[in-house]
Amino acid sequence: MKVLIDQDRCCGAGSCVLAAPEVFDQREEDGIVALLDPAPDDSQRALVDDAVSRCPAAAISVVE
Q1: CA–CA distance from 35 to each of 21, 31, 40, 44 (Å)?
Q2: Which residues lie across from 26 on neighbouring strands?
Q3: Model-level pTM?
């Protein structure tokens, strides 16, 4: 699994960080998503999927 983020679409809601804190963080200066782990292992799959579904800006996607 590879996680992709579109920082231009990110609105800084932080839902992804709450859903998968080992994969996502937010930049201090503007709250935009920061990717901590672009290729998390399968144990993080449910959390990443939850983050994708929670993102109000649809800024996160997953490719296999």
Answers
A1: 10, 12, 10, 14
A2: 33
A3: 0.93
